[in-house]
Specification:
444 residues, alpha+beta, SH3 type barrels, Leucine-rich Repeat Variant, 23 helices, 7% strand
Length: 444
């Protein structure tokens, strides 16, 4: 009898072990249930030979398995017993309180704005024959609206013998949700043209082309940031953790493209090991710039020490105080919010640098729950500064709140087609969540 009970207990324990959820790493305290339905990207590490599947989003968690969604929209199921761990790539479970769910219909007044938006894009597309870059951007937006003329235009460009042009079109079509042929990516990565190799490297990361990893690892070692920075970001998107030592090395470099790529890539890879290595770096008494980068990274990865470092920098390093405040105000940090409010109320010379900071200031305050920042966006959109208006439209896309559609409505009618297209693109992103996600990703 005792033997039978022991055997039964063993079977029950075995079954329980099989049904136990795999550990979630890279974000302290995170669980599969928290990941379910969020936009957080994860890497699933399988027990069999440590195989890794990157850039997935957890959709549903059940008693013995969970489902994920790939970047192509394909759904797969993993059984707990086959999974070693689930790594949170960005260091924290993303929450977008202002983001509306896909199924939420536009309000009638917003639908009118979007309907006019499509008309305006069509107008810009039709008269941009002398500006191929603008025509290409307009064509991409129209493809989202199933426009036959725009699709034909892109198909004609894809048929070109110019590989650089074909890659530019492939990058554009990524925003529509289409994946390029592997042969094109391979040809681009093997090209002797640095611009072509860079475009192929970027695209490989976006679409999960894992065969690019060996070539990207050569590019990340290149002394030029033009090649090494995009290679680092793509390898991180592909979940290659072997580049972590190289990324830590890049974190302390002076080239802005390289150290920003390192911050992005380390946060994207995530993991307790990276957090621990960053804390070890702190013990070496780094200079304030390096300290700020480490604090930014730890903050992005959800480690409390990141916020503490940024708060200390705000209090002790005047030159870095504005940048630290922009990060912390989004989290409703009182000191950072007060600093940005005071900076916003202060009269400053309308230099391009000050105006661009004013736009970023408004975005951080808005994300921190201050709707009065809308008035600042309206003020900036009334200027004649094209770069400033473009930044405001990019920030509107990042914030991803449909209430901002009315804010950019007048800009859609701007007489300058370039400025109008920036606003049109932002409006489409607010109406189409999948496009918004890819657009934001393409800018990171």
């Amino acid at each position: 009898m005792r033997l039978m009970l022991a055997l039964a207990l063993t079977v029950l324990m075995s079954a329980a072990a099989c049904a136990q959820e795999p550990p979630v790493t890279g974000a302290p305290g995170a669980s599969l249930k928290q990941l379910a339905g969020s936009p957080t990207l994860v890497t699933v590490v399988l027990k069999a030979k440590g195989a890794k599947d990157a850039n997935l989003r957890v959709q549903e968690v059940r008693s013995k398995e969970f489902t994920v969604l790939t970047e192509k929209g394909e759904q797969f199921t993993y059984f707990y017993e086959d999974v070693q761990e689930v790594r949170v790539q960005g260091g924290k479970v993303e929450k977008s309180p202002l983001q509306l769910p896909k199924s939420t219909a536009l309000r009638p007044e917003d639908q009118k704005i979007v309907d006019r938006d499509w008309e305006r894009i069509r107008e810009i597309f039709g008269r941009s024959n002398e500006n191929q870059e603008r025509k290409l951007r307009a064509a991409v937006l129209l493809c989202l609206h199933k426009d036959a003329d725009a699709q034909k235009y892109l198909n004609d460009l894809v048929a070109s013998n110019d590989i650089q042009m074909r890659l530019e079109v492939a990058l554009a079509m990524y925003l529509v949700g289409e994946k390029p042929a592997d042969t094109l990516l391979r040809e681009g990565l093997e090209s002797g043209n640095r611009i072509v190799r860079t475009k192929a490297a970027v695209l490989s990361g976006y679409v999960g082309y894992r065969d690019s990893i060996p070539m990207l690892k050569l590019q990340i070692e290149d002394r030029s940031a033009e090649l090494s920075a995009p290679a680092a970001r793509s390898l991180a998107r592909l979940g290659d953790r072997e580049i972590i030592p190289k990324l830590i090395e890049m974190l302390s470099e002076s080239d802005e493209r390289r150290y920003k790529a390192a911050i992005f890539s380390l946060a994207r890879l995530g993991g307790d090991d990276i957090i621990e290595q960053m804390k070890l770096q702190l013990k070496q008494n780094p200079e304030s710039q390096i300290l700020f980068r480490i604090g930014t990274l730890l903050h992005q990865m959800g480690d409390p020490m990141g916020s503490k470092i940024l708060q200390d920098i705000m209090a002790t390093v005047p030159t870095l105080q504005p940048e630290a405040a922009l990060i912390l105000a989004r989290e409703k940090n009182w000191e950072a919010t007060a600093f940005l409010r005071n900076r916003m109320a202060r009269r400053e010379n309308p230099t391009p640098e000050n105006l661009l900071f004013r736009a970023r200031n408004a975005a951080s305050l808005y994300l921190g729950g201050e709707p009065t920042a809308l008035a600042v966006f309206q003020e900036l959109l009334r200027t004649d500064n094209a770069k400033l208006k473009q930044l405001v439209c990019e920030l509107v896309t990042e914030i991803n709140d449909r209430r901002l559609l009315t804010l950019i409505q007048s800009s859609i009618e701007n007489a300058d087609d370039g400025m109008a297209l920036d606003a049109c693109e932002a409006a489409v992103s607010l109406a189409m969540p999948d496009f918004q996600r890819r657009l934001v990703e393409s800018r990171s």
